[in-house]
Structures are given as C-alpha cells and as structure tokens.
Design goal:
By secondary structure, the protein is α/β, with parallel strands linked by helices. The protein contains five helices and twelve strands. It has a seven-stranded mixed sheet. Strand 2 (68-75) and strand 3 (78-83) form a beta hairpin. The termini are far apart. The structure holds adenosine-5'-diphosphate and magnesium ion. Magnesium ion is lined by residues 130, 134, 137, 169.
C-alpha cells in the first residue's frame, strides 16, 4: 500500500503532465456533468475553487449569475469563504493559490447549498487526498459544515478504489470525474 506522501507526489506528477488539450476537454466534461445535476441546479450559493496546479478548471461555471459563488482564503489553519464573480479582483494567497480580496463579503456556512471540493485523489468510498494541509478535513469536521452536500472534483485517473486514510479524514458525499457524477445514496 502506498502511503499518502508517495501517492500525492505520483498523482500530482501525472496530473501536471496532462496535455493542455486533454486537461481542457476533461475539465469541460466535468462542468457538463455538474450543470446537468440537480445538486447544482437546486443550489443558490456554491463554494468552489480557482484551478491550481492543473486541478480541473471549473471557471466556465462561474459566469452563471443564477448562482452566488464563493471561494476560499487560507487564513492560518482555516479557510474563510468570500463572494466572488468574474471581473472582481483577486490576490495570490498562501501556497500561491488565487483567492478573493479580503474585503469581499464573507459567506457563512448556513448560507451554503453545495461545496465543490478540489482533490488530488478520491476513492470509491468518498475519501479524499488533498495537498496535505488538512484544510477541508478541518472544515468538514465542524458541525456547521457537516450537513452541506459536497462533490469531490477529480480526474478519472485519480478516482481510485481505496486511498490510505487517517482518523481525521472526512469523506465526501458525491464525486465528479470527466466520465461520471457518482451520487451518494441520499441524492
Ligand atoms: P489532506 O487531507 O490535505 O490530504 P491530511 O489528511 O494528510 O491532508 O491532513 C493533514 C493534517 O491536517 C494532519 O496533520 C492532521 O493532523 C491535520 N488535521 C486534519 N483534520 C484535522 C482536524 N479536524 N483538527 C486538527 N487537525 C486536523
Ligand atoms: Mg485528509
């Protein structure tokens, strides 16, 4: 069994070696699965991410002003969530990740209908491998976030039968790859 550190490094290398044309096509296919899903169409406020290190690019979705989109700022060990729409300014934050300005309106957990979670890998049980910061594990361990639907976003090559997990790892409810949106039994 690979450990998390080796797996992360190996899968990130594979992802960063994807030809841009494939990355674009797979990202567009993920966006299509999402826009066809009731999880999205029934939502109003959706938390997402700006593509970093060849994560699937969801930015075409952000132009749909039927939704209110929120993006994270890493502040110490936690993330704060802020409203952002195309044209609004951004900063480069911790880890080199693009983030909204600190003066953008905060989004509280009770306003959120759906969370799109970037993943280095996911497994068939919904467990996630991130970059190793534990940010989403910390967030999803809090009661105010626990009942909000989540969709892990991952390319198919990194959607694996079983990842190594630790006691603090929090599974995601649903997973979307370029091939399919896998919904949990409750959806
Ligand atoms: P990732 O989920 O980003 O792949 P890990 O699961 O390896 O990263 O977690 C990274 C770190 O985050 C671990 O050292 C762990 O102690 C910390 N962590 C995760 N969840 C919590 C939590 N609920 N409270 C405090 N620390 C946490
Ligand atoms: Mg984890």
């Amino acid at each position: 069994m690979y450990d998390k550190v080796q797996l992360r490094s190996c899968l990130l290398q594979t992802r960063m070696a994807l030809p841009v044309i494939e990355w674009r096509q797979k990202s567009d296919d993920i966006c299509s699965h999402l826009t066809n899903s009731q999880l999205l169409t029934n939502a109003k406020t959706i938390l997402a991410y700006f593509s970093f290190r060849t994560e699937p690019d969801l930015s075409s979705l952000f132009y749909d002003s039927n939704y209110r989109w929120g993006f994270p700022r890493c502040v110490g060990k936690t993330m704060s969530w802020h409203v952002w729409k195309p044209g609004d300014s951004t900063n480069t934050g911790a880890y080199g990740i693009t983030e909204p300005n600190s003066d953008a309106s905060i989004i509280e957990p009770n306003e959120v209908d759906l969370i799109l979670v970037p993943c280095v890998a996911c497994d068939h049980r919904g467990y996630r491998l991130g970059y190793g910061g534990g940010y989403y594990d910390r967030m999803l361990s809090k009661t105010e976030w626990q009942s909000i639907p989540t969709i892990g976003i991952v390319f198919e090559f990194a959607y694996l039968p079983q990842l190594p997990i630790e006691s603090w790892d929090k599974p995601l409810q649903n997973i979307c790859t370029e091939n399919k949106l896998v919904l949990s039994a409750e959806c």
